[in-house]
């Protein structure tokens, strides 16, 4: 696991606490998690130790000078320490976490994993982080107001398919930083991860069973973009469709008809010359590219084939087939 | 992760640092603790300047808090205490800001800091009151040095003073446990004792101020004697302005348990603190005579230079035949009263040679110093051990609007009187200035009279006195609680069951913590505005009926569900929903809020009543 | 003035369209908010009746255009015709120049015709040969779309759907309502004439626009928008035009309820109609309801 390296390279302020929290504590399972006594862990931070030493110093000064000021402040520091123990715990206790429905993403790129947070009271400085190599966005402490809120935690996966991110670490040291309270949770929902987009050769299968000439005519739909043909005018036809030029040539009243053009459907297939995973990555890039250009394409995989189509939904269907292909 | 980028600005912590630096003004750097605090504040500042990460900034906040505590050990008056409190609040706010990020505005942060501190206070007080104190280990900390001025001086040489300058600046303030002033005749506050006479000047013992850092072997702790039985029970809290002496005023009868108060054999009271700071201490009034009064005189107390003041010496010797020292004192009193002496603050200087002769037999006018030194010299000539004592007499009783009433002593209250050794009677105070004509002005202050008259009209003075009243109350509170007091409190709480102390502390601290948490939670609600708070109340009410909001539900739907379950609640609920919508979402109408709130409360009461009925029925 | 007249109008339309009071109110809110309405339903469920009832209720000029595949933009907007008498071109306005336009089966027309209509809806004016002609005020398009009959049609693209404030589906009537319909208890459209005037409608619109929305409510709307744009959204994100429309519709709803301010309940009442077609252009899912559940409405 690379988390230890990741934590090591972080600035010193979060370093030690973070590694503790990542190593200790049972990982909770399930679709949702309600933070409470059973799944929260709390330990004093290093600053908490210093704080205790400071309080001790003040008490010694109080004893030596027999003045009440240092006594009072020393005890106040002690009381703050004990208060912070509870406040830090309260800051997380009662928070409800629930997995959202993650949207698919590409392997090797940043993935967003949604977490619903529901709280009955405002909370402060909570940081959430999915274990894994790159999860930067989530560790900026977060203020929650009462109510529900959805967070997108970032992570990334190197493998395609149905993937689950590493355990979620939720921790807080608010309000005073004297204690670190944390919990670990493995969200249950899986996220569809498409193969990484690597441009490369793909095989193009022939569009099945339609001779080129007729396909052109059948694919076109009645529309208004491209002039297609002339036909005799009917009374209900609009005047604006009248072929004036033809009328002027004395060939009678004819109406223009229009057609929308249709593209040549292309069926993409894995290139047999490259390893399977690599071929899927090439397909992933090809699907993306063609869909961006608005082209019509289909997909043929060993176990599944998707007829030609276009649009976002079609693209996602193709990518999903690539992600789940066995 | 760019840690520095997400850190809040340092301004709040710099402000705390600035307040701390302000609080450092007047520290004594020659004292170990003073030096240490200065160093700590400096280190905190340097660290703040260079800190790049959160841990560094947290450390700064902690250093600042500890520095506050160290300052509190050295300056316990109201103003420094307020500064220390402010600095502590600011550094705590700085710490909160570090954790809770950038979004909060300053006032909000300060409020939160105050709230956190208030939540910690109950427990801190329990610990403060109950955890047993121990005495200091060794003698590590004491060490004053001196500067500043006072109406008193080491050498009493009245002959060299032509005109007594009226200095109305304050010298000391004292508050009494029962808030009643002492009777006018008992307001003698002794400070310095001058036993050595060279014919002109009365001087203090050579070693009186010689060793400031350590008590002399002869100096004793002011052991309070709880078994004495004659304890007056009344305590005095003194606040003394900076002076040149570590000797501080007292009434000569009190005891104290403070370890840095030392009593010299001649009845001076020394406070082992830097003389140039404002000092405060607490005394317990006693009615029984103190050991110094029975301390037998030494040969020095009879010493009188042979040459000089021949007429004085002759007069004194003429009384030496009287057997009882008291009779010699009475003879002197009769002689003074018959002599037509007048009190004057402008007597002019006396000749260097035989100055007291000139005062006694020619001028016959002078101020307290003249009378005290002449009388003491006469007594020595008559064979009665005597010395001059200087201190303060009288004072103005001030009753401010808030805080504790107190007696205010000015430098112009400075006074000198004599003490004579009366054998088995011990050292007795004799004030020869009282024998002069015009005794009303005996403490030398026409100015004070004028001031007393002007007090009502002088607004600045009035304000000052209010402040001092608060200051006195604070000092009394802060100084009043020492080991003895704590002992008394524990005895009162536990009797002889000392074993229960641990449990008491645990229980008290737990209760304090619970109170603090409750307070904190309550205050957290206070961040909401009134309609939002009222809404929380309503939601709590509904939760008792097992009606909790489902996701995305509006209040109308929630109330509808509740009303469907409990039809008798329908009417008040409808009213509450309507009223909440009007308060929350309607445009602000001037003055309408109180009326709608009243309607809301009435409906809420109705709802509670209906709910209780509903529960009773089921 | 507003509430009781509006109540009367709602009641009158309700007499014509039996058992569909909530949808009638939504359609009315759409009209009051100054938006355009998309009705998506099976034939024969009362789409045309609703449109005509709305127009008649306010005494508005009403026209109906059946969109067919060969309808050209000029057929809607009108054309410049050479006047033989004067020898000059003059503009002959098309059916678009009316106050309530029922665009029947809008998805049958070609995308070009659709976009001409939608442009007119968005700008309130029509350009022919470089000359701009303003449309009459008030102007409202009620477009219908046949849900089942998708063969040979051009469904409105997502970007164009955004221009309709609401999408409603009238649905089948309740059993009792249909019984009343069969019993002939409903009123005919002719009884509706002249309840209110076009001037009154303009007045109501400006009143509606001035209804109070305070910061707490705006926050609620913003939270809804943020939820629709969140990382686990299941539909398309809602645009700022959607949030403007939502607030306008919520104001109209509050006006219909006779209130002078808007509450989250108003927002919730109009939210499915305003947001569903923007979240999920193709199907009648429950995305808007799921979104409403994500945001706390008690505040």
Q: Would you summarize the structure shown here?
A:
The complex is a heterotrimer of chains A (326), B (618) and C (299). By secondary structure, chain A is of the alpha+beta class.
Folded structure, characterized:
The complex is a heterotrimer of chains A (326), B (618) and C (299). Chain A is an alpha+beta fold and 326 residues long. Chain A folds into three domains: 3-193, no CATH class; 203-208 and 264-324, no CATH class; 222-260, no CATH class. Helices cover 32% and strands 32% of the residues of chain A. Chain A contains eight helices and 19 strands. In chain A, strands 1, 3, 7, 8, 11 and 12 form a six-stranded mixed β-sheet that branches. Chain A starts with a helix and ends with a helix. With 618 residues, chain B is an alpha+beta fold. Chain B has three domains: 3-104; 158-470, no CATH class; 530-617, no CATH class. Chain B has helices spanning 3-6, 11-24, 32-50, 54-74, 78-100, 106-130, 310-319, 325-338, 355-363, 368-381, 446-454, 459-480, 483-494, 501-525, 530-544, 555-565, 570-585, 592-617; strands at 170-176, 188-194, 196-197, 202-203, 220-221, 231-240, 261-263, 269-271, 279-286, 342-343, 365-366, 386-393, 396-398, 406-410, 414-421, 427-430. The longest helix of chain B is centred in the C-terminal third of the chain and has 26 residues, at 592-617. Chain B is elongated, with a radius of gyration of 34 Å. Residues 1-5, 139-149, 224-231 and 440-456 of chain B have low confidence and may be disordered. Chain C has 299 residues and is α/β, with parallel strands linked by helices. Chain C has a domain at 36-182: Rossmann fold (3-Layer(aba) Sandwich). Chain C is 45% helix and 15% strand. Chain C has helices at 2-16, 21-32, 47-57, 73-77, 111-123, 158-161, 175-182, 198-209, 215-228, 240-256, 264-279, 287-294; strands at 37-41, 62-66, 78-83, 88-93, 100-104, 125-128, 131-134, 140-146, 166-168. Chain C has a five-stranded parallel β-sheet with strand order 2-5-8-1-9. In chain C, strands 3-4 form a two-stranded antiparallel sheet. In chain C, strand 3 (78-83) and strand 4 form a beta hairpin. In chain C, helix 1 packs antiparallel against helix 3 and helix 2 (21-32) packs across helix 10 (240-256). Chain C is globular and about 70 Å long.
């Amino acid at each position: 696991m690379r988390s230890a390296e990741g934590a090591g390279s972080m600035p010193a302020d979060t370093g030690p606490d973070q590694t503790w929290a990542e190593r200790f504590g049972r990982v909770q399972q399930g679709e949702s998690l309600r933070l409470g006594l059973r799944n929260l862990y709390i330990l004093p931070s290093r600053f908490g130790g210093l704080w205790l030493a400071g309080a001790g110093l003040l008490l010694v000064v109080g004893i030596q000078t027999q003045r009440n000021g240092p006594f009072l402040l020393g005890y106040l520091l002690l009381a703050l320490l004990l208060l912070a123990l509870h406040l830090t715990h309260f800051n997380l206790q009662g928070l409800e976490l629930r997995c959202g429905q993650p949207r698919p993403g590409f392997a090797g790129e940043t993935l967003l994993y949604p977490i619903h947070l529901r709280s009955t009271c405002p909370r402060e400085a909570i940081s959430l982080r999915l274990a894994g190599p790159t999860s930067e966005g989530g560790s900026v402490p977060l203020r929650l107001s009462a109510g529900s809120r959805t967070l997108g935690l970032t992570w990334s996966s190197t493998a395609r398919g149905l993937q689950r991110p590493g355990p979620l670490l939720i921790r807080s040291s608010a309000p005073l930083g004297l204690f670190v309270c944390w919990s670990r949770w493995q969200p249950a929902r899986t996220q569809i991860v498409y193969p990484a987009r690597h441009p490369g050769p793909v095989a193009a299968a022939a569009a099945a069973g339609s001779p080129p000439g007729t396909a052109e005519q059948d694919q076109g739909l009645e529309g208004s973009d491209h002039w297609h043909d002339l036909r005799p005018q009917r009374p209900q036809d609009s005047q604006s469709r009248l072929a004036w030029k033809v009328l002027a040539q004395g060939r009678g009243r004819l109406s223009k008809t229009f057609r929308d053009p249709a593209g040549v459907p292309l069926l993409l297939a894995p290139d047999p010359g490259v390893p399977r995973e690599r071929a899927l990555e090439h397909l992933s890039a090809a699907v993306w590219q063609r869909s961006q250009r608005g082209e019509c394409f289909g997909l043929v995989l060993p176990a599944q084939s998707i007829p030609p189509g276009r649009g976002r939904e079609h693209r996602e269907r193709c990518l999903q087939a690539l992600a789940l292909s066995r | 992760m760019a840690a520095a980028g997400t850190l809040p600005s340092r301004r709040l912590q710099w402000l705390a640092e600035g307040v701390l630096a302000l609080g450092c003004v007047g520290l004594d750097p020659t004292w170990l603790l003073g030096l240490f605090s200065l160093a700590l504040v400096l280190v905190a500042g340097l660290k703040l300047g260079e800190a790049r990460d959160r841990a560094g900034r947290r450390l700064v906040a902690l250093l600042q808090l500890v520095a506050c505590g160290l300052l509190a050990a050295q300056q316990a008056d109201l103003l420094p205490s307020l500064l220390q409190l402010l600095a502590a609040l600011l550094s705590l706010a700085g710490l909160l800001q570090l954790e809770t990020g950038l979004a909060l505005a300053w006032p909000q942060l300060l409020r939160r800091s105050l709230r956190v501190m208030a939540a910690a206070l109950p427990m801190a007080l329990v610990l403060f009151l109950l955890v047993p104190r121990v005495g200091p280990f060794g003698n590590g900390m004491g060490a004053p040095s001196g500067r500043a001025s006072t109406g008193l001086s080491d050498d009493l040489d009245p002959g060299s003073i032509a005109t007594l300058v009226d200095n109305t600046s304050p010298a000391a303030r004292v508050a009494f446990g029962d808030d009643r002033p002492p009777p006018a005749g008992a307001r003698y506050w002794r400070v310095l004792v001058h036993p050595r006479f060279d014919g002109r000047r009365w001087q203090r013992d050579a070693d009186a101020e010689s060793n400031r850092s350590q008590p002399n072997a002869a100096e004793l702790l002011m052991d309070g004697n709880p078994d004495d039985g004659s304890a007056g029970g009344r305590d005095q809290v003194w606040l003394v302005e900076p002076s040149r002496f570590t000797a501080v005023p007292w009434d000569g009868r009190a005891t104290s348990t403070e370890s840095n108060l030392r009593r010299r054999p001649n009845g001076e009271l020394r406070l082992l603190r830097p003389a140039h700071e404002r000092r405060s201490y607490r005394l317990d009034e006693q009615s029984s005579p103190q050991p110094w009064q029975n301390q037998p005189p030494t040969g020095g107390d009879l010493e009188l230079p042979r040459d000089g003041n021949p007429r004085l010496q002759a007069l004194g010797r003429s009384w030496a035949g009287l057997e009882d020292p008291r009779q010699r004192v009475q003879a002197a009193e009769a002689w003074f009263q018959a002599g037509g002496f007048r009190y004057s603050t402008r007597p002019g200087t006396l000749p260097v040679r035989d100055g007291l002769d000139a005062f006694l037999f020619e001028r016959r006018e002078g101020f307290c110093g003249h009378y005290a030194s002449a009388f003491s010299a006469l007594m020595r000539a008559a064979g009665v051990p005597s010395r001059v004592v200087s201190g303060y007499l009288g004072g103005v009783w001030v009753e401010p609007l808030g805080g504790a009433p107190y007696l205010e002593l000015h430098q112009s209250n400075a006074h000198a009187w004599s003490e004579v050794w009366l054998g088995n009677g011990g050292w007795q105070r004799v004030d020869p200035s009282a024998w002069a004509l015009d005794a009303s002005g005996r403490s030398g202050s026409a100015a004070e009279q004028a001031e007393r008259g002007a007090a009502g009209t002088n607004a600045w003075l009035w304000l000052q006195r209010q402040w001092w009243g608060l200051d006195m109350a604070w000092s009394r509170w802060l100084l009043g609680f020492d080991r003895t007091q704590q002992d008394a409190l524990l005895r009162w709480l536990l009797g002889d069951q000392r074993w229960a102390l641990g449990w008491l502390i645990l229980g008290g601290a737990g209760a304090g913590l619970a109170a603090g948490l409750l307070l904190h939670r309550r205050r957290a609600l206070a961040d909401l505005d009134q309609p939002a708070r009222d809404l929380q109340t309503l939601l709590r009410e509904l939760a008792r009926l097992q009606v909790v909001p489902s996701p995305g539900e509006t209040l109308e739907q929630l109330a509808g569900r509740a009303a469907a379950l409990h039809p008798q609640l329908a009417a008040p609920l409808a009213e509450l929903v309507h009223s909440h919508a009007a308060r929350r979402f309607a445009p602000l109408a001037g003055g309408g809020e109180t009326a709608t709130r009243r309607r809301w409360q009435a409906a809420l009461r109705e709802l509670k009543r209906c709910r209780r009925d509903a529960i009773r029925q089921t | 003035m507003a509430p009781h007249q509006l109540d009367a109008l709602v009641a009158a339309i309700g007499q014509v369209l039996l058992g569909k009071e909530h949808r009638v109110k939504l359609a009315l809110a759409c009209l009051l908010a100054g938006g355009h309405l998309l009705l998506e339903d099976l034939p024969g469920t009362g789409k045309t009746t609703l449109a005509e009832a709305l127009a008649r209720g306010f005494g508005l000029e009403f026209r109906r255009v059946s969109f067919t595949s060969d309808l050209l933009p000029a057929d809607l907007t009108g054309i410049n015709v050479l006047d033989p008498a004067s020898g000059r071109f003059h503009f002959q306005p098309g059916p678009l120049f009316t106050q309530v336009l029922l665009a029947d089966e809008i998805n049958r027309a070609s995308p070009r015709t659709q976009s001409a209509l939608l442009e007119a809806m968005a700008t309130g004016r029509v350009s022919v040969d470089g000359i701009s002609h303003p449309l009459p005020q008030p102007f409202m398009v009620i477009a219908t779309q046949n849900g089942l009959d998708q063969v040979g049609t051009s469904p409105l693209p997502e970007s164009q759907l955004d221009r309709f404030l609401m999408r409603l589906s009238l649905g089948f009537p309740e059993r009792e309502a249909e019984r009343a319909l069969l019993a002939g208890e409903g009123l005919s459209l002719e009884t509706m004439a002249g309840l209110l005037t076009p001037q009154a409608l303009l007045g109501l619109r400006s009143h509606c626009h001035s209804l109070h929305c305070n910061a707490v409510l705006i926050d609620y709307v913003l939270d809804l928008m943020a939820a629709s744009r969140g990382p686990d959204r299941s539909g398309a994100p809602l645009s700022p035009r959607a949030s403007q429309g939502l607030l306008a519709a919520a104001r109209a709803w509050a006006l219909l309820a006779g209130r002078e301010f808007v509450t989250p309940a108003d927002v919730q009442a109009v939210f499915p109609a305003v947001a569903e077609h923007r979240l999920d252009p193709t199907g009648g899912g429950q995305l808007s309801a799921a979104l409403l559940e994500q945001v706390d409405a008690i505040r």
